[in-house]
Write a structure and sequence with these properties.
By secondary structure, the protein is an alpha/beta fold. It contains twelve helices and 14 strands. The protein binds nicotinamide-adenine-dinucleotide.
């Protein structure tokens, strides 16, 4: 297959970690007979420096014309004093919006070789953890109406609105069902239907849509407060977890934390088409930028998700995942996941070892 990949390396460690992911993608292309071409584009602080804005129009146009987008990270102290709409992070929100990406998928996986990185007790994580949070990304309370007013009796008062439509719920349910079909065929849908009207609609539509269109996928419901507790009590019970924007924001951070390491976790954002945006969940880590010490694995796994979810290449995805596992099992570590008796390597060497293991 021929695929054209837009690369937004961004700032800080962004260029180092995307370079590592590209090395691995080139190895996959070589092994499986594909042709991947890479187009480097500016977004974030580097775009502000080069053209005065975080998301140049050319970047938007070229991303839309690509088969998928690989992102490093944006931001850093150099641009922190700029006004909100001129900051690097504005580029990130802008590209998600321009590409119509309404779903965010964040797998939180605890690798067997890194079991001691989890803050949970060993018996809770002995069978591994892999929670895939499917979060609705462009609706709900973060985008609903809000306001402030002076109440006669209570003083300054503020309000936000949680609002969901059938269309918004159906399209995110489709993403979760398609993912579940490739995995355990089970979804846990998280809401607060005992209190919120929007959650009652969420629950009804998730069930009717999934039953009608994906009868092989089983959907169970869980209240958000119970889910927060269950993630630390029995994380192995979760596979695909479907939820709204705010609940997903909170639960995906909790799920990531139980796996212990920010340098290992990837995420994807998808819309109606197959073109998505794939990135590590961490930021640009300015404290370690340019030192060849960053962990490239989150970005390498983001590239693997691109192969599976945008290019329908499950074998190639599995090959990268297996290579990461092999390298970790062999005791090779970057500084963030280093422990006694292991072999310390830099960002470039870690990527090289993973590419070699494919
Ligand atoms: P961060 O994720 O960049 O760093 C937090 C800590 O984790 C740091 O100590 C860093 O060294 C470490 N770390 C992060 N990624 C690592 C990796 N791959 N390997 C080893 N260690 C790693 O978060 P922060 O320090 O709060 O933010 C730094 C900048 O990144 C800010 O400008 C912020 O706005 C931006 N940011 C960007 C994104 C994005 O582009 N999607 C996301 C979050 C933060």
């Amino acid at each position: 297959m021929n695929k054209h990949i837009a690369v937004l390396a961004g700032d800080g460690i962004g260029p180092e970690i995307t370079e590592g992911a590209i090395l691995v993608l080139k190895r996959v292309a070589e092994k499986y007979g594909h042709t991947f071409t890479f187009e480097h584009l500016l977004m974030g602080g580097c775009a502000i420096d080069a053209c005065g804005e975080p998301l140049p129009q050319t970047t938007v146009e070229r991303c839309l014309a690509s088969d998928s987008v690989l992102l490093g990270a944006v931001g850093g102290p150099k641009w922190d004093s700029l006004p909100g709409d001129k900051r690097p992070e504005k580029g990130l929100l802008g590209i998600r919006k321009a590409m119509g990406l309404y779903s965010n998928i964040r797998p939180a996986k605890l690798w067997a070789a890194l079991a001691d990185a989890s803050p949970l007790k060993a018996h809770l994580v002995q069978n591994g953890i892999e929670i895939i949070v499917v979060r609705e990304l462009t609706g709900g309370i973060y985008f609903g109406e809000r306001g402030k007013y002076e109440d006669e009796n209570m003083g300054e008062t503020a309000w936000d609105t949680e609002k969901y439509s059938v269309k918004e719920i159906e399209r995110i349910t489709r993403i979760a069902c398609e993912l579940a079909q490739k995995r355990s065929k089970k979804i846990i849908s998280v809401d607060k239907a005992n209190v919120l009207e929007s959650s009652r609609l969420w629950r009804k539509i998730v069930h009717t849509y999934a039953e009608k269109n994906y009868p092989d996928v089983e959907v169970c419901d869980m209240l958000v407060d119970n889910t927060a507790m269950q993630i630390v009590k029995n994380p192995a019970q979760f596979d695909v977890l479907l939820t709204s924007n705010m609940f997903g924001d909170i639960l995906s951070d909790e799920a990531a934390q139980v796996t212990g390491s920010i340098g290992m976790l990837a995420s994807s954002s998808l819309g109606d088409g197959t073109c998505g945006l794939y990135e590590p969940i961490h930021g640009s880590a300015p404290d370690i930028a340019g030192k060849d010490v960053a962990n490239p694995i989150a970005t390498i796994l983001a590239a693997a998700m691109m192969l599976r979810d945008s290019f329908d290449m499950p074998k190639e995805y599995a090959a990268i995942e297996c290579a990461v596992s092999k390298v970790l099992e062999s005791g090779v570590r970057t500084a963030d996941i280093m422990s006694e008796g292991m072999q310390l390597v830099g960002c470039r060497e870690m990527a090289r070892r993973i590419a070699e293991a494919i």
